[in-house]
Specification:
Order of helices and strands: HEEHHHHHH
Distance between the termini: 17 Å
Helix content: 55-70%
Structural class: mainly alpha
Number of helices: 7
Number of strands: 2
Radius of gyration: 18 Å
Largest sheet: 2 strands, parallel
Strand content: 5-15%
Length: 167
């Protein structure tokens, strides 16, 4: 079933603002007539994985992957040196944002050279078409660069549900 709709049924209806971080697949989007004020945050891991699958196809492939690596490094450094609103806003607002702009430029270059039917062309177009959602976390210190941890937790719940045969 639709896990997101099920979860929102339990949410306090007064709290209309909802931030959803997902892979931006259409199945993870709420219907247009939803009563919620929804902001979508993309997951950088989902974008990065597309490039890893075809990193040897173009010289820009490894460059893009290195940019993602650097963005994750900045997030790790924030956790190590003190993740608070001031530090997070400062690092993301200047340093991480500049790397995202470089990433966008590389993706524009790739998209101009590669067809959307190729893996690399599709990966670049994914970043370009979802750039606003992928960079949402830069403006919200409470949102992470990816939803990897949450997906791992959901996976455990799904395994428990399957193993218990719905008991």
């Amino acid at each position: 079933g639709n896990l997101l709709t099920t979860l929102l049924a339990f949410r306090d209806p007064v709290k209309k603002r909802v931030v959803i971080q997902a892979d931006l697949a259409t199945v993870n989007l709420l219907p247009e007539d939803s009563p919620w004020d929804v902001a979508y945050a993309g997951c950088a891991s989902h974008a990065r994985r597309r490039f890893v699958k075809c990193e040897d196809d173009d010289a820009n492939g490894p460059c893009v992957i290195q940019l993602f690596r650097t963005l994750y490094f900045h997030e790790a450094e924030l956790s190590y040196f003190g993740r608070n609103i001031e530090n997070t806003t400062a690092v993301r607002g200047v340093t991480s944002r500049s790397y995202w702009e470089m990433l966008r430029e590389d993706c524009e270059d790739i998209a101009s050279k590669w067809s959307k039917e190729t893996g690399l062309g599709e990966a670049a177009r994914y970043v370009l078409s979802h750039f606003k959602e992928l960079t949402y976390y830069l403006n919200d210190p409470q949102v992470t660069i990816s939803n990897d941890f949450c997906e791992r937790m959901l996976r455990m719940e799904k395994l428990n549900l399957a193993n218990s045969h719905f008991r």
